[in-house]
Amino acid sequence: MFLLMMSGGLFLFTWLFLALPLFRKSRCFLLVTLLLLLLAGRDLFFVLTGQPWYGQEYPLWANILTSAMFGALVILAVVCIPWAILFGLFRFFGLTTLHELRGGLTVILILLAGTCSFFCVNQGYSMPEDISYTVGSMMVPKGFDGTRIVQVSDLHFFKGTSDRRIDDLAKKVIAAKPDLILFTGDLVDGTVGQRSSQLERFITDLKNGCSPKYGMISVTGNHEYYSGDYAGWMSFIRSQGVTVLENSNVKITAPNGEELYIAGVTDRAAGRFGGEMPDFAKAVAGIPRDAGVIMLSHRPYRPKGAFDRAFLVFSGHTHGGMIPGVDLVVGYSNEGYVSGLYHDYGRSLIVSNGTGIWSGFPLRLTPHLADNVIVTLRSENTLNKR
Fold first, then answer.
1. How confident is the model at residue 239 (pLDDT cuts 50, 70, 90)?
2. Domain range for residue 48?
3. Cis link prior to 21 (omega < 30° from 0)?
């Protein structure tokens, strides 16, 4: 129902501000209306076929086609008001010839929106680019100086994710030679029965390819809750040798005996499913006051009071804003954070664009592409104001 409401709202918006003002007395009115209905039809089809909104069980080609159609509707919604104003100005200044051509030009606009959307879907499913950061803090023990961390976020494995893509994504992580791999949620779209073999393949590739000396640590994202089997997923991920943090922390020890703590919180989607909400105080409970803390949170956040002691936070969820215009909405709903490295409140916050992309809206446009985040820790303060 969520997707149906969204596509229905976009159709109504474009119909009111594009079809109705420009074509209500034109022979093109019915054609433009039908084209808009076609673009909005993806989510109605999903509802009628009983597909879950968070991840449809269709092959990749079907996802690309339907997502490009829906993406074209989104693009039209962004440009329909200025497009209508343009033709209003043509009419106001007596440019009747151009105004009479509005039907054909609008159909061309719809086709261009579809072409642009196909390009954005192609970029959405492109392989992640390596993004490297150096984060220094006096809270990094000298024994962890030079430690390499790779963040894996928002894989969103679904039916259309091929074995080859899974292997290629694992190779990107392995090539970075990580000492520690951190998962920041939304690894799968589907039940344990549907997606466990894919996630197992990915984790097994990582184990065989690099065996990070500090292991693999994970927190959950909102889509693990949406799957309807959150407990099953947490159990499965732990069975693969990954430490899962649910408002808890774990200690890692350097070869010289110095210690660093990794803390992690749940996602606020837990509240809709009877789960435990994010609790930053609980996540750092028991950690010595003078110890260095790295926090994992699927969604980026501003510090939550005195209990937020992390010098470095890893987050995802935003997909880097995906495309211009949408990134403004993403920033608004995520406390102003969208993509990259932020230095604020005496800490560093890294917001990954995502290693993968959600099949419900797999559109990206440069510079909002997928990333493979690689962080090198330094035991000196390199924190600068942004």
1. very high
2. 2-124
3. no
Whether residues 105 and 150 share a domain: the answer is no
**Coil, strand or helix at 278:** coil
Q: Of 124, 148, 173, which residue constitutes the final position of a domain? A: 124
pTM given for the model: 0.89
Helix (H, G, I), strand (E, B) or coil at 381: coil
What CATH number is attached to the domain comprising 347? 3.60.21.10
The token duo for 140 is 């990094």
Are 172 and 78 part of one and the same domain?
no
pLDDT tens digits along 29-49: 888 888 888 888 877 777 777
**pLDDT single digits (tens) 175-191:** 999 999 999 999 999 99
What whole-number distance in Å separates Cα of residue 271 and Cα of residue 276?
A: 7
Q: Which of 124, 146, 170 is the last residue of a domain?
A: 124
In total, how many domains does the chain have? 2
